[in-house]
Hints:
Chain A contains no helices and twelve strands. Chain A has strands at 3-5, 10-14, 19-21, 24-26, 32-38, 44-50, 56-58, 64-68, 73-78, 87-94, 104-105, 109-114.
Amino acid sequence: AQSVTQPDIHITVSEGASLELRCNYSYGATPYLFWYVQSPGQGLQLLLKYFSGDTLVQGIKGFEAEFKRSQSSFNLRKPSVHWSDAAEYFCAVVPFSGGYNKLIFGAGTRLAVHP
Amino acid sequence: EAQVTQNPRYLITVTGKKLTVTCSQNMNHEYMSWYRQDPGLGLRQIYYSMNVEVTDKGDVPEGYKVSRKEKRNFPLILESPSPNQTSLYFCASSWTVRETQYFGPGTRLLVL
Lengths: 115, 112
């Protein structure tokens, strides 16, 4: 079945440590790929997106993501986490097929940051 | 300021009492959509609209209705709410589904 998987429900890191959040998708063709962040009590904000081209994508707030076609993955990374990064992170895709107009989200990864 | 607004932000109602959650955007976006967020399930799309008068079902449309009579407004209607519709609802807008989605602040609904 077509899906978006975020294997980690909760992740805890120490402030200043590096971070990697995983995202895998199962669609025939490479979909349009997104990462959104939801801070506590807030709506969602786009961190970055990938459509084509360079497989390493830079986003806001110091985040980056790498697309790996062979692994059907689009993992989010940050070299040094700040306490303000504590939030829930969602990977999302728009499947690349004619006429497909839905945005499909993963279940999310909740990030806690220890001081 | 570019924004998506939703009203009300919080709503407690009883089973079967019709309700409407409004959504409005001021960015002249063509694409609008509604999502519900439930713990462990992420966001699931309820309905979307590619432009005025064109709407289609998302992944969880049962029990919901929408209308898109004007570009800026996309209300979500629950004709006969049930407890399983207790959730956090988000409206979003964008130029197309492949562009950045701009989300409203959310509406927390409790159906007793």
